[in-house]
Amino acid sequence: MKRYQKVITLFLTSSTFISFLALMANWFYLNKIGWLDLFLNSIISTENLFIIAFFLVISFFSIMLIFMLPSINIIMFLNKDDEYILKYNEVRLNYVRIFLVIATVANLFFIVSLFFSNDYYSFHLNLFLLFVLIFTGWTLYYRGLKKIVSQDLSFKKSSKAIWKKIEIYVVFPFMLLLILTFYSLSFYLVTKGLKSNGESTWIQLVYLFFIFEFIIINSVVPCFIYFRSMNEKGWFSIITSISGCLILFIVIISILVPSVPSIIINATMKFSGIKNESPKTYIVNENEYPEELFELDLWNKRAIKDSNRFTIEGISMYSFGETNLVCPKNIVTSYGNSLSNYFFDKKEDEKVSDELKELAKNCIPFDKKSLKSIGMSKD
Known about the structure:
Layout (H helix, E strand, L loop, with lengths): L1 H11 L2 H18 L6 H6 L4 H19 L1 H10 L9 H28 L6 H32 L4 H33 L10 H29 L5 H22 L2 H13 L4 E10 L10 H4 L2 E2 L5 E12 L2 E5 L3 H8 L7 H15 L3 E4 L4 E5 L3
Antiparallel strand pairs: 1-3, 1-6, 2-3, 3-4, 4-5
């Protein structure tokens, strides 16, 4: 096992692997904005490769942690062994199983509420479904845990037994249901509703249900792995098993929801400083970059008296090596729209992507030495 640990560590920290991650992020980003011509510069230049790779890993695991929030919270609540209950690990696993059942019910209710989202009584329906979900959840937790813990608690002092019952049947279920509520709200954030593009409404609903069910199941897989292995295997084995499952999950969900890799790469570029959406004013030398390249409406171009220089306003979409790709400010909105995914509407996705690349044609790749920033521009 130690030999494998050493090989894996050497591979993950090798300069070849780090360069591969950085170049992959560069290629994906430049392809998205239609400027693959600059990719060759990123291969030649080794500047910032480690920083890009570092923030790519950070962004990747940040997204993974968001998906895995249920497991993280459940493990935090139930990690400590209980001196009052002999079969506490079985209690833990039951908590997770019941959480999975309730999450599936919540997913079903979400689909129902989405179907009636434009109905006059949709608000009252959502409140009713929420009440049914909470009642169902507490009932399942009580029935699912009573047989395991009642016998152990019957031998304890009445006062301690009462507090332990409150913890097991009320506190923990309440916290888990609260986690589920916040987690389910994220579904509303990533769903732009049903599309009236000719695709059957029921097909859309079924597709969304299975995508979210896939996310829910994978969000609790680390719990099962951790609780089943915590007393049998070492930390490295547990982490390796969980990491393998999570990486496979992210790969599959990226295929099902194409906006996920876009969000990861966008975060990488922003955190590493390669992309900066803050509008700035730049001084340009007309001898190097003729005024005709810059349309007045796009760049807010202004001449500087008694000189062959002028100012423009733009944002730095890609600053790497000796190149700074400066774009008009209106590209920010189009780029933000491209980070969202339109379920069942590939034409809309392609339209948004084409609009971004069309706007990016107005961008100018400057040599960093010939471009001077004089501060933030006014929106």
